[in-house]
Amino acid sequence: MKATMMSMLWMALLAPSVHAAEYSRPMADANPDVIRLLAKEGDPAKGKETYGLCRGCHRADASGKAEAGYPQLAGQHATVIMKQMLDVRSGRRDSPRMHPFISDEVVPEEAIAHIAAYLRSLPVPDTNGKGNGRMLALGRQLYQRDCAGCHGKYGEGDGDKFYPRVAGQHEAYLLRESRESRDQGRRNANPGMVRILKGYTDEDLEAVSDYMSRLVPPVP
Amino acid sequence: MAPRVWKARIAATLLTLGMGYTAMVTGDAAQAVEVLVERSCSGCHGMDGNSATAEFPNLAGQQASYLLREMQDYKEGRRQNEAMAPIMSALSTQDMQQLAAYFARQTPVPGTVNKPGLLALGQRIYLEGNDRSGVPSCEGCHEENGEGSKKFPRLAGQHVPYTLDQIAQYASGQRNNGIRVMRTIAQRLTPEEAEAVAEYMASLK
Fold this sequence. Notes:
The structure holds two protein chains of two kinds. Chain A is mainly α.
C-alpha cells in the first residue's frame, strides 16, 4: 500500500516524464507539496549507499570543494536537495558538469528522497572556504536587511519553503550563485530574490557572500 | 587488441566446451568449477585469475557481483566482445555464479607499472579528479586503494593496456552496459590523464 502511494506520488511529481534529449528544455515546477511529503519518507541508511556516486565531487563528508565550485551539501534541507536535483534533471537549472551523474539513468527516482535524508543528517563541517574578511560589516548590514527574511537570521534557511541553508557554505559558491542569480544565468532563482540582487554591486555580493559563509546557526 | 591471438584461443576454448560441461557438475562442485576454469578461462585469464597477457583482464580478487554481471552482459549482448560472447553463451547462471565466486577469492598479484613518470599525475586524477573538466575522483566510487565494493569494480593492479582499451571503449560508446557514468568520465579524460590514471591503478595493491 505504502509502496503504491510512493510510486503514485512520484508519478505526480515527475509527469510529464523527461528524456535526456530534452535536457535543456525548461519545464514546470516540480510539485512542492509532493516533495515535502516524499522528503519525510527518506531513509538516511539507504541514501548513504547511493551517495557513493556523488563522493567523487562532493567528497565523502559532503563538504564539497571550494576551489572547484562543488557546494557543501552536508546539513542542507532535504527538500532543498530534492528540488535542486529535480531542477537539474529536468533542465530548470544548468549543471553541465554534474548532470550526467544525477540523470534518471544513474539515480533512480526513489533514491532522491533517501540521498536527501542522508545529506540532511550529516554534521556541517566548519572548514568551508571563506572570503577575505574585509567587508563583514557591510555584509552583515545587507544580509540582515535583505536576505534574512528568507534565509534566516543565522543563515539556517527554511526547508518547508525551499529556502536553502547558506550558513557554512563555501564563499566562492555563494558568490557565484548570487551573481548568476542577479545576472539571470541561474534560471531557477527565486524571482523575489532576483529583484533585490539587481540592486547589488559586485562588491555588495562579495561582502554578503563572505558574511553568509561565516554564519553558524545555534544548535537547537 | 590482437584479434589473431583471440581467434586461436576462442577456437581452442570452444572445442573443450563442446565436450559437455553438464556431465561434470554432478561431481564435487568445487572441483567442477576448477575443471571449468582450466578448460574455458585459464588460457586467457590464467588459472588463478592473474592473466599473463596484458590485453586480457585480471579477474583475481575482483568483486563477485561485478564479475557475475559482466558475464551475464556478455551472454546477453549488453557488453560486446567476440572472444567472451561465445564462451559465455555456453554457460548457465549457476556456472557463472560459481565462476564469479571462484575468481573473487583468488589472490591478485601486483600489477606492472610501465611509466613511473606518470604516477604523480595519475595519483592526482585518481584521488582528486579534474575540477575544470568535471572528472570526479575515481576514489569516490572505486575506493582509495582501488578494491571497489559491491557496487563498483576493483581496479587495483589491472593491466594498463586493458584499462586503456576499456576507457577508449567507454569514450566511443562501444562499451555501454551498466550505469552510464564511466562513459562521461572517459569522454572527459585527456589521453594523457587516461594513461596516467591507468598506470596509477596498476600500482595499487
